[in-house]
Amino acid sequence: MSASPPAFSPRTLAEACGALAAEPGLVRLAGCTDLMVATPERRLAFPGLLDLTGIAEIRGIQETAAGLSVGATTTFRELRRSPEVQARFPALAAAAAKIGGWQIQNRATLGGNLANASPAGDSLPVLLALGATVVAVGPRGRREIPCESFFVGYRRTALAADEILAWVLLPTPPPGTVQAFRKVGTREAQAISKVVVALAGRVADGRIADLRLAAGSVAPVPLRLAAAEAAVRGLPPGPEAAELAGRTAAAEVTPIDDVRSTGAYRAWALERVVRRLVLELR
Fold first, then answer.
1. According to CATH, where is 3.30.465.10 located in the chain?
2. Residue 195 pLDDT exceeds 90
3. Is pLDDT larger for residue 24 or for residue 207?
4. Which of 163, 125, 172 shows the shortest CA–CA distance to 145?
5. Under CATH, to which class is 58-171 assigned?
């Protein structure tokens, strides 16, 4: 029988960076909910595991001058129950409450969801809509990566092989910003998304002044719906703007058929979800 891959459980970020420098192939873990269901053959193929969950400095939610700093190993249960997140980033709190079931929320982490980079990751469109920044730490020091630049391909990120995702920075939205999140899945819980959409927008002087729309499960990566945003920016909020945003969003993606849904259904659902979210700007 093959031996299990070696595992490291550092207690500081410096120790973790040292282990990764010594063993560049280590798989960085921050919750392990995907690895737990992997086949034994896949798990044994890993050269080694680097468990980050014991590092206190990259866990928890801290207020900053610009907003909130969320440690990468902060669980979705902690996000869902955080008064600061509920008050200032309700879309993220809503997404955290929809990820898996309670058992998964107790273990799965924001950093793990990001680094896994699944196009169906429920928190990822929210982070895009909120303008989040990912902080990576490695031998060259600290590096800040805008969330929009973090996803570079299917399940691929901008993290270097020797970097650790340490924090996520959430800037406080301007006053009057409306946030919304919707997930379309087969069940109410424990379902991988067919479509997931997040919105952050603001109306000023009777017009849509700011708008950030993002979606998942409709492309190889989570993405901003830039064409839909541009189509309605400056228009009065209401049914006409919402219809235009929905049509434009459906036209700018090319979702695939897979075991969970068809591409046609995903485009249809995206159009309607975007329309409903933009209506909330009223």
1. 58-171
2. yes
3. 207
4. 163
5. alpha beta
Q: Strands 49-51 and 7-8: what pairing?
A: parallel
1-4's contacts with Cβ under 8 Å and 24+ in sequence apart are 2/44, 4/43, 4/44
Which architecture, in CATH terms, is 180-279? 2-Layer Sandwich (3.30)
Q: What is the pLDDT of residue 1?
A: 44
The larger pLDDT score, comparing residue 248 to residue 187, is at: 248
Task: State the CB neighbour count (10 A cutoff) for residue 172.
Answer: 15
Q: 3-state DSSP call for residue 167?
A: strand
The answer to whether 27 and 48 are in contact (CB under 8 A) is: yes
- Residue 189 in this model has a pLDDT that exceeds 70: no
Query: How confident is the model at residue 102, as a pLDDT?
Result: 83
Q: Which sign does the torsion angle of CA 179, 267, 116, 164 carry?
A: negative
Which amino acid, 87?
A: A
At residue 263, what are phi and psi to the nearest 5 degrees?
Answer: -60, -40
Rounded CA separation 140/220 (Å)? 30
Look at residue 45 and tell me whether its pLDDT is greater than 80: no
Residues 6 or more apart whose Cβ sits within 8 Å of residue 181: 91, 92, 94, 95, 98, 125, 126, 196, 197, 198, 199
pLDDT band of residue 137 (cuts 50, 70, 90) is: very high
Take residue 161 and report the two structure tokens written for it: 């092989």
**Cα separation of 214 and 14, whole Å?**
34
Residue type, 259: V
Q: In 3D, which of 103, 73, 69, 105 has the Cα closest to residue 9?
A: 73
Helix axis angle for 263-279 and 239-251, nearest 10°, is 150
Confidence of residue 72 (pLDDT cuts 50, 70, 90): very high
> Residue 38 pLDDT > 90, yes or no?
no
Intervals of CATH 3.30.390.50 along the chain:
180-279
